[in-house]
Task: structure prediction
Amino acid sequence: MTGMDRPRRLRRTPALRRLVAETTLQPRQLVLPMFVADGLDEPREISSMPGVYQHSMDSLRKAAVEAVAAGVGGLMLFGVPRAEDKDADGSQASDPNGILNRGLRALVNEVGGSTVVMADTCLDEFTDHGHCGVLGADGGVDNDATLRRYVDMAVAQAETGADLLGTSGMMDGQVGAIRAGLDAAGHIDTAILAYAAKYASAFYGPFREAVGSSLEGDRRTYQQDPANRREAIRELELDLMEGADIVMVKPAMSYLDILRDVADRSTVPVAAYQISGEYAMITAAAQNGWIDRRGAILESLLGIRRAGADMVLTYWATEAAHWLG
Result:
């Protein structure tokens, strides 16, 4: 090998590697998903996601303050109502006194202006059947009836002061309906994070525990088929046309090809969600001593960034932000 052909020269020292790194990972690029549960006095650990908790209102505030101090870019909040408060239409989702809207107000009051407060705008946590929408007479999800509920939910969340609403239900036309509803209610500055490509993944299992899901069956009639790649671009284009401010790919690690496709075509920032099953797999392997925990976490996040994500939703956001300093 000649002296002209030695790419290893630029890998020789940490300083050289840092100088020529093509992809960066910074705290501001990380978003922490959080769960607030009704009726809790103390946080409750999620058994399938060690280190992640359903929060009480007090512990939610404390965890938010810690995350913001570490420099994370945003907080995405999910609400967990009492089982007896669920119903067919997910009425708690749009109730100003429902657990999610109370939690959003708590975050806005505690850390608003210091970080981006995001709301999950979906009915699945609040319905007694566990689906992401209103069911029709045939037992399937009624797309248009669901859109009306999403608008009610979005307006209620905007009124808490939330900065960004995450449209995760995968209903056709959801971004356009919510944008029109927000504008009509005077919330023209409330932004929309569109789940442009959300797949019917086997890796959501721990999340179902985290939100106390009532789902029996699956969501394959409205979430995307893992076999399909081009379909994601169709969904992206529709969401952009309807007014999405940010678009997201979910899950992240098994769909890096989709993330790259979306990043190459999107005219707005792109997010990716490192979901509960991805968290659980790395955690379990690290607990068994099979992989280096810190190294695997940072490498997985860097890989998602390298594939094209401008921001990553990850349950390790606060911890990784501390490491990145």
Summary: The mean pLDDT is 94. The radius of gyration is 20 Å. Residues 134 and 145 are 6 Å apart (CA to CA).
